[in-house]
Design a protein that fits this description.
Blueprint: E1 16-20, H1 24-36, E2 39-44, E3 57-60, H2 66-75, E4 78-81, H3 88-96, H4 105-112, H5 114-123, E5 131-134, H6 143-154, E6 158-162, E7 172-175, H7 178-190, E8 195-199, E9 205-214, E10 217-220, E11 224-229, E12 232-238, H8 244-260, E13 265-274, E14 277-284, H9 294-297, H10 302-310, E15 324-331, H11 343-347, E16 353-356, E17 366-374, H12 377-390
Parallel strand pairs: 1-2, 1-4, 2-3
Antiparallel strand pairs: 5-8, 6-7, 6-8, 9-10, 9-11, 9-13, 11-12, 12-15, 13-14, 15-17, 16-17
The structure holds adenosine-5'-diphosphate (ADP) and magnesium ion.
Length: 405
């Protein structure tokens, strides 16, 4: 039997935020919460997760564990999320029972299901790459027939994507022709993965528009340029090389989307620029890797503003604090080196803001990041990479996209 929501709120008077998931996003949210005297309770899959060592309280369980979710709801004022591995129907029952869940279950749907996300963008008349969802439905021809028809129009190569549970390029498969596509489709069918296919966009730059919406309105951080290699973000730069009119348009689209879905919290809108054509690739309704630079690079970080928004507090201003900022992700090297062993070398780099997530080192895993700010773009970028290299991150030969590998 589920506890009645009225009975469960024995609170200290301090705001209490419950986070489903305990990765690095939760960890950095706790840093921001600490400054504001906000308590954070986690529902962690493992007691070893990145954020657990700093939380007020940790519940251990799957993000779909009904009992533990109720226990979390009972102990906090608002539930929010570190990731999207949630059951929306289950969360809807919490919402209906009067639990504050922000972003709302409806907004979370965008982050959970790329097919729904794209349909919502089309509905809002926001440009997206040409795409088709390849669900195993009867009566509309086989998946491969529909894919072949789509490929005839959009042109090969195409990109196949899992509509759910993808991250860091896992779940993104560029395919040259119908033969390669058939292999991916067969494997996806066996694993119960619903695919979508989309045109391979001839990307000239990737950018991200980060916004926050709360009771005092919608605010946007300046648009940044992102660099992905094999689908994983390696570097984020503000302002990067995005033309100002494109950045303005990107920001307008993101704000319009936030308002149209009644967002509460932070949302990141990833976009592709192909010459002058701007399309939205995907949406995350939570703090995002492309916004880590805001911790030192802007007046209010994405983590603090997410907390302010979901607790109904006034939002902080989002202006940058310096003309240039660069964030470089620290990925695990092939030897499984722990970057914290090299902390002193990274901190010796002038102005390097080092964040290590305390995660077990594994090749290619995001273990931390470094941010630098300043007035000379070349110097700022060099110092960020210098510190990241000191922490033993592998250095990519050249930034490239998943689809060009
Ligand atoms: N249609 C596409 N055309 C070209 N590159 C793409 C396309 N879709 C994805 N990519 C590349 O792969 C990266 C990861 O894809 P994305 O859809 O964002 O998945 P994830 O959920 O893993 O972030 C993108 O940032 C981009 O570099
Ligand atoms: Mg992405």
């Amino acid at each position: 039997v589920e506890p009645a929501v009225e009975q469960v709120g024995e609170r200290s008077g301090r705001p209490v935020v419950g986070i489903v998931g305990a990765g690095q996003l939760a960890r950095m949210t706790i840093e921001a919460a600490s400054a504001l005297g906000i308590n954070v309770i986690l529902l962690a899959e493992s007691a070893e997760d990145a954020a657990t060592e700093f939380a007020s309280q940790v519940l251990v369980g799957e993000p779909r564990d009904h009992g533990q979710l109720w226990a979390l709801a009972a102990r906090c004022d608002v539930i929010t999320f570190d990731h999207e591995h949630v059951d929306l129907d289950q969360l809807a029952t919490f919402e209906e029972a009067g639990v504050a869940v922000w972003p709302s279950v409806e907004a979370m749907h965008l982050g959970v299901d790329k097919a729904h996300m794209r349909a919502t963008l089309v509905e809002a008349e926001i440009p997206v790459p040409a795409f088709v969802v390849l669900a195993d439905t009867e009566g509309t021809g086989s998946v491969l027939d529909r894919l072949a028809a789509f490929g005839n129009g959009a042109g090969w190569p195409l990109v196949l994507k899992a509509t759910r549970d993808g991250y860091d390029g896992k779940g993104v498969w560029p395919v040259a022709d119908i033969g390669e596509a058939a292999i991916v489709c067969r494997r996806a069918h066996e694993e119960g993965i619903v695919l979508m296919a989309e045109e391979l966009v001839p990307i000239t730059a990737e950018l991200c528009a980060l916004v926050v919406r709360g009771p005092t309105g919608t605010s946007a951080w300046p648009v940044v340029q992102t660099h992905q290699v094999n689908g994983i973000c390696r570097e984020v730069s503000y302002p990067g090389t995005i033309p100002q009119d494109v950045a303005d348009e990107a920001q307008r689209l993101a704000v319009r989307l936030a308002d149209s879905i009644g967002l509460v919290g932070v949302m990141a809108v990833e976009m592709f620029l192909a010459k002058r054509r701007l399309v939205v690739n995907e949406v995350a309704v939570r703090p995002h890797n492309s916004g880590h630079w805001t911790i030192e690079g802007s007046n209010t970080s994405q983590f603090e503003n997410h907390l302010r928004a979901i607790l109904g507090l006034p939002l902080g201003t989002t202006e940058p604090r310096s003309p240039y900022a660069v964030m470089v992700n620290v990925l695990g090297d092939d030897e499984g080196t722990d970057p914290s062993l090299h902390l002193a070398d990274a901190l010796a780099v002038r102005g390097a803001h080092v964040h290590l997530y305390g995660k077990e080192p594994r090749p290619g895993r995001k273990l931390g990041h470094v941010t630098t700010c300043g007035i000379d773009p070349t110097d700022v970028r060099e110092r960020a990479w210098q510190a990241a290299r000191a922490l033993r991150t592998p250095v990519p030969a050249a930034p490239a996209t998943a689809a060009s590998q």
